[in-house]
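Our consortium's second objective concerns turning raw sequence data into structural hypotheses that experimental partners can test. To show how far this objective has progressed, the report includes one record in full. It was chosen at random from the queue rather than selected for favorable results. The single chain below, 715 residues long, was entered without modification.
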Amino acid sequence: MPTPSTPLGTPAPRREGRAKVTGTARYASEHTPAGCAYARAVPATIARGRITAVDDSAALAVPGVLAVLTPRSAPKLGDADDPTLRLLQDDEVPHRGWYVALVVADTPEAAREAAAALRIEYAAAPHDVTVRADHPDAYTPDNANGGEPACRERGDAPAAWAQATHRVDASYSVPPLHNHPMEPHASTARWDGDRLTVHDSSQGANAVREALAGLFGVPEENITVVAEHVGGGFGSKGTPRPQVVLAAMAARHVGRPVKLALSRRELAAVVGHRAPTLHRIRLGAEADGTLVSLDHEVTTHTSRIKEFVEQAAVPARVMYGSAHSRTSHRVVPLDVPSPSWMRAPGEAPGMYVLESAMDELAETTGLDPIELRVRNEPGREPDSGKPFSSRHLVECLREGARRFGWDDRDPRPGVRREGAVLTGTGVAAATYPVLVSPSTAAVRALPDGSYLVRINATDIGTGARTVLAQVAADALAVPLDRVRTEIGSTDLPAAPLAGGSSGTASWGWAVHKACGALAGRLAAHEGNLPAEGLEATADTAGTADEESAYARHAFGAHFAEVRVDTATGEVRVSRLLGVYAAGRILNARTARSQFIGGMTMGLGMALTEGSTLDPAYGDFAERDLAAYHVPCHADVPDIEAHWIDEEDAHLNPMGSKGIGEIGIVGTAAAVGNAVHHATGIRFRELPLTPDRLLEAGVHRLGGTSASSGADTAGS
């Protein structure tokens, strides 16, 4: 156990907080080099086809316009692992919103005016943007995201389900979802000969540098990518995005620094989204609620230019013991923007479905939903057979039940009423894998008694600067205020991106190792330190990425109380509680912020968020925050996050697990289960908007008692 004096675990305030609230923290679009020009990207207005003609005369006539780049005039790019980055290279239009031109001007106003004046003609081709489980082009990929096998099977799940005493067979759907970080994607690029400097809004500067080197044919050491402050990403900034390529292309072409900031309306088509998922889930259980069969089938879409398969059936391979299991993914290539990472990819939609189905099974068996989950707690990870490094899901459920007052709950749906308002409560479990990647770091002891940590970590609002200083102070046994951190530049020791809830675990491991090496150097050093100080470096390759003999996951339990207005169909969440087992919590303040942020995002997934692909135009209908509704403060009146003390010796030197994503994982299911408890109606399509509830008949529940518990709708 850590000593009481250790900086780790304390609620240290984030170090960049004052800079952010006073406006002195500078983001990618706030860097304006001398002579900076401005770029405006032009999106395609057809859903599929090719460019047949470009008339740029009116655009070039706009005062201040420096260049108009199209596939006929843009510089040729080199190879890229990601085909969405090879922009303006041919006349093909794979989906609506694909960039087909770039205007560069002295001012953003001139660039915008010229972009509107550009005339592009197309030859449109037939398109298809609608995913269906029976789509004739659906296929089984080799793998889902993260290298997960697309299909896994143990025993004979269909046969075991047919013979089970209690059975659930349900279809669920989750719509396309968009990340919408507060800071839209932006880049500022400057060439000095063959040297390129880019300020980019990115979750991982090293990946951006690598992509730019390949595309522009320059050595990586000639490129510096800076991502000092990043205003959120949620996965959409986890890989290089079009704006950084276009900014660098334009800067090289016009011989001046160029800034390109995407408008929010462009983001839906060019920076990824969570693909829609269609689910069929079948659970079979014995009379006592013990699962004997689990069958989870997922169909999703991908673009025609880049395969991305949301791994939504994967969490079912982790959660509950069952002798017979089948989990599978199918994907349909469509004329849609390329889907990509979004907070808790796979786990967020997959656990929504699994935990909703478990609630259905609890009702079928007559068991309390918590008791059903406890009865199906596995001793080892079901899919791999590995022992868990730690698994305290039951403790999270029990502690959450105590804090929430679950034992006072009347299990009958539709019995808590205040006039036209019905109240219900729901629970769901959560899990997220422990991910870690190799990293390097450097730590220096300076003559004034301070220490400097240098690592190309990225702070996307999570408090990375602060927690890495805490890791170093703990490892060096020095006060926290004697440690400084430098992050967010490829000129610093290389580090992996901030994503997959892996950042702190990966970076902290390297920082801890470097501090150990530095302590050894200091112990052997005699006399005063040299003016430049003493430095030690570390590289965790070969250790952090070593295959573990244990299944490593974080777990949690979510509880929700909802109030459903039967007259309007409106759902309000009056209480939301999360309890987590995530290893050693390194900073109580920033951890609570991360948990609550994830839960709030899960609340949006449950009640307000969702995009619609217009089949006629091939476009997302919801392209701004006026149409794509995210939760606001008024939507979260009472939200709490807690955790249990968990020691796990099989993780990293800090004993920590990632926490950025597990907060979202079970929230939507807990809210959906609470809506069922309030109304007696089972909804199987998100989000739970008033129109959906009214269509299912909640208005008919306003004057009489709700149903006794049987599903009255399958929306």
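The partners drew two points from this record. The first strand starts at residue 37 and ends at 43. Residues 509 and 652 are 6 Å apart (CA to CA). Both points have been shared with the crystallography group to help prioritize constructs.
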